[in-house]
Structures are given as C-alpha cells and as structure tokens.
Amino acid sequence: MSELISQTLTLIRPDDWHLHLRDGATLQSVIAHTARQFQRAIIMPNLQPPVTTGERALEYRERILDAVLKAGLPADAFTPLMTLYLTDNTSAEEIRGAYATGVIHAVKLYPAGATTNSDAGVTDLLGRCGDALEAMQDIGMPLLVHGEVTDPDVDLFDREAVFIERVMIPLRQRYPALKVVFEHLTTKEGVDYVSQADGPIAATLTAHHLLYNRNAIFQGGLRPHWYCLPVLKREVHRQALLEAATSGSPRFFLGTDSAPHARGRKEHACGCAGCYTALHAMELYATAFERAGRLDKLEAFASLNGPAFYGLPVNSGTLTLEKRPFTIPETVPMGDDELVPLAAGEALEWSVRED
Ligand code: NCD
Ligand code: ZN
Fold this sequence. Notes:
This protein is α/β, with parallel strands linked by helices. The protein contains 14 helices and 15 strands. It has a single domain, classed as Metal-dependent hydrolases (TIM Barrel), CATH 3.20.20.
C-alpha cells in the first residue's frame, strides 16, 4: 500500500491539442484548470461569433493571456495556440496572414451544423474552400477536422466512418501534402484510416473516448454530462482507440476536447454536447493508460507526438502524477453558474502533484 501511495510518474510537461476555453466569465473560470496541467493548448475557435479572421484570433489570444494573469498565474504559465474557423468564404490571404503572425497555428473545419456553434461552418469543403486549402498546403498550416458528416440520413453513430469515405479520402487525394489532424477520433474505422494512410495525417484522442463507451450515456438513466460530439461509441471502438493511443505511434496524441457548458444547458430538454475534462485531464488519461498496462507510453502521447506533428519544440518543464486517489468534484464554479465535470463524484486512481 505505501509503495503504491508513493508511486509517481514524471512526464515532460504535456500539451492539450484540442481545447474549448470559451470567453468572458467562462474563460476566466476554466483557464487555471488547463494551465495547471498543460503548457500549451490548441484553442478551438467556435465562439459566437466564430474566430474567422486573424484579427479576431489575435484579440481572443489577448483575452486568454489576460485571463491567465487575472487567475494569478505567471504570464508564461500557459501558451494559447490559436486557430481560425474555416468558412466557405475564408480567403487564401486570410490564411497566409494569420499563419505569418506566428501565434495562429491551424485552421479548424466544422462541417456546418455538425456541433456546438458550427452554423457558420463549411457547407462544401472541396467545392468552396479550394483557395484556403491550397494556401494551407503550401505554407504547411494544419487543417483540424471535425470528421462527421451532417447528412440527416446517416445514422449518428456512423457519421465519422461515412466522413472518411465522403470527405477525408477525396480531400487528401486532392491535397496530398496538406497536414491534417483528424480531431477527437472515435471509431475503429478512424483508427484504421489514420494508421494506414499515406502522408501527413495525425489524430487527437480524448480521455473520455479512451475510458468509456456509449453505455455511459445511459447507465441508470439518461446522463447528459456524458453526451458529447462525436458521441461515445461501442466498446469495440473504445478498445481500438486505446490501442492506438498506447501503441507509441507518433500519429496519435492528446486532445481533451474539454467543452464547458453551464449545468442548466446540459441538464435540459435539448442538452448541449460537450464533456468537461480540463479539471482532471491527466488523471483521466493516466487511468486509461494504466488500465491498458501502458503507462510507459503516456509521455509520447501527451508530450512528444503533438509538438512533432505541429513542428513546435517540446516543453522544458515537467508534470508529476501520483498514484493517489482523486475524487472528482460534483461541480465547479463557472461565472455566476456552475458546471459538472465528467464523472463527477467518481474516484480516479491518479492525481496531479501540486509543486
Ligand atoms: C464542443 C463544444 O461544446 O464546443 N462539443 C463537443 O461535444 N465536443 C464542440 C466540438 O468539439 O464538437
Ligand atoms: Zn471540440
């Protein structure tokens, strides 16, 4: 027992390659959770209005940096890596200008209607976004893909697999040198595609898709805090994702997709999609990796593979996890409201050490 209690795991400081911070009071409430665990994060641009221009991304970056300081953290505690929200009208000039700032690192594709604040997203990627994609391929700026079709005739659980056939394969045939990140991968079909495809492709994996299957949404009743997009899938998919994450392949890396929504917006007749995991991200990932017997692969997944794909340096700091139970709080404050973290009230096997 004492041996277990003293068991620690020190990693190169990790990064979160897919994060929703929101804005205003929500941003202020959640920023310290991410900064406690991660040095950098790729910041999703699905605000209202969306972050469609370099100018908006730079302004949003300033608000994030202000929030870091207001949270009482040193300025260098956290580095936001900004993204642009792709629309049917994004110009090549906008892309090139944004990338040239050195702080806007990628462009996010939301198929219109696929998820939270995606109404301004892309209606026809290959038909409408050719100039933007050409420019990105040319300068080496990654396209981050929410890989789900929105065709109402396609079953919700098949949206990712159908996206591969209808969009991902044609996209990458036309732009073979375009760097693509298949965000929050959720299926075996996705893992097979990303593992076997030629060229510069990678995928982020959330902690919740590594730990839970779709039963979690319905266990003992309908549980809205387990609802996210892409939705949790069958056990066979979870196993494929966990195998990919722990395989050591450089194509898979950490992206929490932590997505805060006020409690009342989740516990609602038409509840919002998104799981809040920024509070306990590394505890969740460590639990998943340990259950797979592959804790030795966590550092590559969390701290090395992402920077390698994005062409960024590896962080210099460290993060230490301890084998000490962590009970997830029932709620955390969010502005005047509150939010419910994923798996609230449950105990995880690992804790982040406060240095
Ligand atoms: C995200 C959000 O709330 O912004 N929700 C989610 O379920 N993951 C959007 C997204 O990444 O799809
Ligand atoms: Zn997301």
